[in-house]
Design goal:
The complex is a heterodimer of chains A (113) and B (119). Chain A is mostly beta strands and 113 residues long. Chain A has no helices and 12 strands. In chain A, a hairpin with a 2-residue loop joins strand 7 and strand 8. Chain A is globular, with a radius of gyration of 14 Å. Chain A starts with a strand and ends with a strand. Chain B has 119 residues and is mostly beta strands. In chain B, a hairpin with a 3-residue loop joins strand 4 and strand 5. Classes of the chains: A mainly beta (113), B mainly beta (119).
């Protein structure tokens, strides 16, 4: 079945460092890909998405490009802030009738001042 | 606009007790979902609904029941709680796939979570 694998954390960075969180997927067909973010004590929020190969999703300085050839959707940010400390989830939707998302296990990011 | 509201936010149960978690959404979404979140496991789908009066099993449905009597509400019940059901529960909702301006991508809106501890 479909699955998502993302790098295990926790990841600790200093403010203004470059961030990469790796995400690869296995899916039949042509899934849509997502990054969700969960701030402490809150629910998940959509960070960005891409619906087809070579699409780039971007939001709040974060970017991810849908790479079909490497089945990847890596999350990047050029300069992280303390406020980016959160858990990041990569997810896919195969567009099936149930509309469900399949999530990776999450990567906890801590940014130190 | 409240979005997705879950109640209660916290609950402690004893083994064998029953309870119901309520999820309410005010976005007129067709689809609703219940997930559980456990350390190192990500989010796993318990049950879902594709419309009023319909429910279906997800990845980990055992020990849970659900009902969707009204479009805006999705209830998750535990008939006889077990310590293995200690978790954080998230409700989510979405438009039907490919509609609501999502361009084919099913974007979920999540509630803030309900933390359940079973002793």
């Amino acid at each position: 079945g479909d699955s998502v694998t993302q790098m295990e954390g926790p990841v600790t960075l200093s403010e203004e460092a470059f961030l990469t969180i790796n995400c690869t997927y296995t899916a039949t067909g042509y899934p849509s890909l997502f990054w969700y973010v969960q701030y402490p004590g809150e629910g998940l929020q959509l960070l960005l998405k891409a619906t087809k190969a070579d699409d780039k999703g971007s939001n709040k300085g974060f970017e991810a490009t849908y790479r079909k050839e490497t089945t990847s959707f890596h999350l990047e940010k050029g300069s992280v802030q303390v406020s980016d400390s959160a858990v990041y989830f990569c997810a896919l939707s195969d567009g099936g009738s149930q509309g469900n998302l399949i999530f990776g296990k999450g990567t906890k990011l801590s940014v130190k001042p | 606009n409240a979005g997705v509201t879950q109640t209660p936010k916290f609950r402690v149960l004893k083994t064998g007790q029953s309870m119901t978690l309520l999820c309410a959404q005010d976005m007129n979404h067709e689809y609703m979902y219940w997930y559980r979140q456990d350390p190192g496991m990500g989010l796993r789908l318990i049950h879902y609904s594709v419309g009023e009066g319909t429910t279906a099993k997800g990845e980990v449905p055992d020990g849970y029941n659900v009902s969707r009597l009204k479009k805006q509400n999705f209830l998750l019940g535990l008939e006889s709680a077990a310590p293995s059901q200690t978790s954080v529960y998230f409700c989510a909702s979405s438009y039907r796939s490919g509609t609501g301006g999502n361009s084919g991508a099913n974007v979920l809106t999540f509630g803030a979570g309900s933390r359940l501890t079973v002793l």
